[in-house]
Structure formats: structure tokens, C-alpha cells
Amino acid sequence: MITRYTSHAGIFLLITIETAEALLFKYYGRAGNLTPLDGDEDRNFRAETADGKKYTFKIMHRGCKEDAVALPCAALQHLVNLAANIPRIIPSVAGNLFESVHTGEDANDHRFVWLLSWCSGTLLVDFSPHTESLNRSFGRTLAAVDMGLRGFSHPAMHIQSRWQLTSAMQSASKVDDIEGETREIARDIFARFETSVLGKLPHLPAGVIHNDANDYNVLVNSVDRQACVNGLFDFGDVCWQPIICEVAIALAYLIHRKDDPLAVCASFLEAYCEVYPLSEPELAVLFDLICTRLAVTVAISSHRQKREPENEYIVYSQRPSKNAMLALKQIGPERAQTVFMRACGLLPIKSGKGIDKLI
Length: 359
Known about the structure:
By secondary structure, the chain is an alpha+beta fold.
């Protein structure tokens, strides 16, 4: 999983490695070396035991609700037979998917912990080059996960969060914290989302989705000597949303640092729709949803940056998201929708070869 980590105050200092090791042994019967991993609010570790096996050990933040653990655990159990490189739940000694524990560092410090199998691979953000073939493999893998989640249900799946695209307007008030020319672009994106997109979302196909297929949660491996995206982890934002929101979130990050965002979207969409077909009404809002996710990312990170200037983790996607917003403004929704429709087989394909036939 994630190999880099930060050590900003207020998150990692709350739980020591020694405490985490003790919890891992007490509740999972495993002794191993723990290495801190990236995390926003939660404490994450890579655990390596003496027999060479690796795991991800998660200690949730104070105040975390049980549903925030029960839902992703249930979703992963639902996907247990999916042929993809995704985490598997490792039950505790007591046979539970997660445990409620007392850390011992504070009399009132109760948290949820859970253990996952380790997913090997290189983070998409760290892998280069992002070829058309790689983008297509990402589309197929994410579509397979979404298809695998069809029919899945859980009492907590409708809990709202700021990272759901249907809740994007919660972040609109943070636009003033954005610096530079993208402030007004973000303002326009939120206005268009509220007036032209938000009312359409309840009428689109919906289901439980991963909801955070960003380039730090996606894994690249070599399969048949060819690099491909075959892994996805961090199911902590799983929720019920329009399916097209899943696609928009993935593309918002996939177009980071790309010279031709439309070509990237086209290759991803062509493969995604081979597994999970999308409709014309869904594609009609896709461009705006991609822009909205970028605007939400920049607004939230800019707002938090002013309050937590020492926290580098919260701004890792800020600059590439700003650049992507600028690029999409030049493209516009009409041109983008035409490309999207061709990629998904809903408009005649132009003559040409490869990606040129779509764009």
C-alpha cells in the first residue's frame, strides 16, 4: 500500500508504535515490525511478521463511529471473491471483522482497530508512464469493483460526508481560501453544479461505490509482462452515490499532470463501459462532476492549509488539481461530452486509429 508517511502533530503522536504493536498482538495474535503509513485522521501501519507476511493495521481516530468501520468491512467481505488486488479482512482472534479497544494511553481513549491483507504494487501516482493501456486497465478494474458491489446493501451506506459529490456544496463556502486564478474558476464550477447538475443526480443509476479511487489508492502491477492497474484499496469512503460519481472521482485524479485530459478520459471510459455501461444522461453530467471533484479537493485543502500549515498530507493533490481545473476550462463541457459519448459507444466513432477515433 502507501509507502510514504508524514508525522505531523495531532495525528500520529496520539498512538505510538509500541502501543500499536501491543494492540496487534493482543487482538490479532501477531507480532511484527510496524511502519507508519500515510493517513489524514487515522493511524495506519504496515505490519511485517517474522514469517515475512505483510498486513495493514488500522487504528481509527478518536470519535470514529462504528458504522465508519462496519460499512467498509462489510463491503470488502462482499467483494471477497472478486478477482482483483483488493484488501481482505483478517478476523481478530475472537473472530470479529474489527475490534473496539482501549489504547491504554488515555483513560477515555477508545478506538476501533482492524487488520487487512497487504496489497502489493506501485501507487498509480508514483508510476510512469501512464499509457493508454494502463488507463484502460484502470477503467476495467474500477468497473469490476462497481459491478461487484451491485446489490450490496448496508444500514450505514447513506451516511453523508463532505467527500461525496452529492454533498459538494458543503465545500463551496471554502472557495475564498483558494489562492490564485483558480478561485473564480472554482466559484463558477460550484455555481454550475448547484444550478445544472445537482438536481439531476437523484434520477441517475445509483449504488454503493468506492468513492475515492484517487491515484494514492490505486495500484499498478505487472501482469503478463505488461503494467496494468489491478488494485484498489482504502474503502473507508464507501457510500451510496450515483455510479457516475465513481467515474468522475477517478478521472479527476487520473488527468493530473496530463497534457491531453480528453485522451486520458476516453481510454478509461472505453474500457469502463465494456464492463459497466454508462448511459447518455450519466455522461451528460460527467464533465461537471469531474470539475466539481477538483474544486472540492482544492477548496478543502486550501481551507485546511491555512489552519494546519505544517500538515503536508492535506495538500498533496492541490497543485495538480488546480492545473487540471485550468485545463478543463479550456476544453469545455460540449467538446468533452462528445468525446465521452464516443468512448462509451453512444455516438458514431470517427475514422482513425486508437484514441484518435474517439477525440
